[in-house]
Specification:
Length: about 110
Amino acid sequence: EVILKNITKGTILATDLKIATSLPDKIAGLLKKSNPPSLLFKTRFGMHTFFLKNSIDILVMDNEYIIKKASTIKPNRLFFYNLQYPYIIETHTGTIKKSKTEIGDKVSISKH
């Protein structure tokens, strides 16, 4: 079990984080299952929500795991961000609001 925590706020963002390393994980993202895990990507410069039925929350982070962008993205949208930020989290809608996560917060990833 991999936990994603907002250490600035002391809140849990995900207890089911999966590091997307395989091509199927990267392509399918949150499409794969009815109750998919949150996903961490080391990625490119954009994401999409084509074929999703529900909105998702997206967190963009730098190399220090500092949040640089936090957004809720509706289905069938494109989402772009600065190429200098290598990490992105796809998680369930409402995660950002519930955890009070904001730009500038630092997160940690740990196995439990």
